[in-house]
Amino acid sequence: MKRALITGISGFVGRHLREELLRANWQVYGFDIRPAGEKVFVGDLSDRTALTRAIADCQPDAVFHLAGIIKSTDPQTYYTSNLFGTVNLLDAVMQMEKRPKVVLASSSAVYGLTKSARPITERSPLRPVTEYAVSKVAQETAALRYHYAFGLDVVIVRMFNLLGPGQSPDLACSAFARQIALAEISEQNEIVTGNLDAKRDFVDVRDAA
What we know:
The structure is a single chain. The protein is α/β, with parallel strands linked by helices. Helices cover 38% and strands 18% of the residues. It contains six helices and eight strands; from the N terminus they run βαββαβαβαββαβα.
């Protein structure tokens, strides 16, 4: 039976990926900042010792790195978690005798703003315009260094906007859905929105998993 370690296993994508891997008969472990059931190591990405211990105990065939910061008022937080946390994880992986495949969850945010009417492809230039996006570009670059310098098997997934059960109400579509549900049981007849000019592609989180 293959073993997987999912960082951020209690998050939106992590919960669905866990179920997908279990259905595929994988043995699933997690690393998360909060308790999240059996076989989940509790710790922070800044704690290299905890990461090393988790990977040594789990001996995974694949590591799915989903943990990180999406929203913060402190720009430094993005780099502490998304960049340096990833470096800590990859350093821990490098200590394994049998190195696993590492699947790194990046974001479509790395493409930033585009003036073209054509859909974005993997060959589109990176134009990060937010601190979050810059931290994800830096995260990707750090991961690629481990591939080019040490031969680590790294796969980078630039996920586009995900939708599905369990999404945070802090995000637009979940906020809209919550307001609609509340409107159905109250006299509320107005949905509060932000900027509706942006165009987005959406992917069901279960398909992404």
